[in-house]
Amino acid sequence: MSLEVTFLGTGAAFPSPSRGASALVLRREGQCWLFDCGEGTQTQLMRSHLRAARITKIFITHLHGDHFFGLPGLLCTLSLQSSPDASSRAPVDIYGPLGLRSFLWRSLELSHSQLLFPYAVHELVPTRDQCPEEEFKDFSSWDAGEGRPQGPPGRVLHLDPGEDSYLLLEDEQLVVRAFRLFHRVPSFGFVLEEKPRPGKLNVQKLKDLG
C-alpha cells in the first residue's frame, strides 16, 4: 500500500505569509484524505501537486478555528469544480467532534451554498475528561425540535471502552481509529493501522532448493 503525506499548513493559532494554518493530506491509492482544514487550506492545495477533487475523506481533530474554519470554503470550491453528475458519486466523509455537523449545516445554509456532491458528517461524542470541566460544552441537543432537516447524514460515534478508541472505518487493507486527546476543548487524534499482509513465499519450494 502506497502512502504519501503532504503538509499544507503547520502554523499554530493563525496563518502567516509563509506558513498556513493546520492541514495535511494523506494520499492513498489515488484518494486524498485531509486532516484538519484551517483557513486558507484550499489555497495551499492549489499551490501543491495535489488535486482537491480527489479528496474523499476529511478528519477534523478539534473545533478550534485554526483547524476547521477553512472547511466550508473548501467544500464550496469542490462543488464549483464538480462535474454535472457529481450527485451520483460516493459522499465525501467528514469525521470530527460533536457539533461539526451543525456548524457545516448552518454555514452552508446561511451562505445559500448548495453543494453539487453528497457529503456525510460522522461525529465523535467526547467524554467529559477530555478538557477542563469549565470548557466542556454539550452540543448533543443543538437544533433539536426545530422541525426541519438536521443537515447532512452521518453516524454518531461513541467511545468503545474495550478498545479505548472510536472505530471510524475499516477495509481490506487498513483500520482507521480515533483516540481521545486532552486539550482546552475535546480533541482527537487519528491512527491508520495497516493490516498484516500474508507472505507469498513458496515454503516447500525453498525447502526443495535447500
CATH top level class name = Alpha Beta
What proportion strand? 25-35%
Give the biggest beta sheet.
7 strands, mixed
The string of secondary-structure elements, in order, is: EEEHEHHEHEEEEEH
Give the helix/strand class. alpha/beta
Fold topology:
Blueprint lengths: L2 E7 L13 E6 L2 E5 L5 H7 L7 E5 L5 H4 L2 H10 L11 E6 L2 H11 L8 E6 L31 E2 L8 E5 L3 E8 L5 E8 L8 H6 L2
Parallel strand pairs: 3-4, 4-5, 5-6, 6-7
Antiparallel strand pairs: 1-2, 2-3, 8-9, 9-10
GO molecular function, one term: metal ion binding
Subunit structure: Homodimer.
Protein name: RNZ1 protein
Can you characterise this structure?
This is RNZ1 protein. It holds the Pfam family Anti-Pycsar_Apyc1. One of its GO terms (molecular function) is metal ion binding. Homodimer. The protein is globular. It has 210 residues and is an alpha/beta fold. The mean pLDDT is 91. 18% of the residues lie in helices and 28% in strands. It has helices spanning 41-47, 65-68, 71-80, 100-110, 203-208, and strands at residues 3-9, 23-28, 31-35, 55-59, 92-97, 119-124, 156-157, 166-170, 174-181, 187-194. The chain has one domain (4-209): Ribonuclease Z/Hydroxyacylglutathione hydrolase-like (Metallo-beta-lactamase, Chain A, 4-Layer Sandwich), CATH 3.60.15.10. Strand 5, helix 4 (100-110) and strand 6 form a beta-alpha-beta unit. The protein has five helices and ten strands. The strands form two sheets. A seven-stranded mixed beta sheet has the order 1-2-3-4-5-6-7.
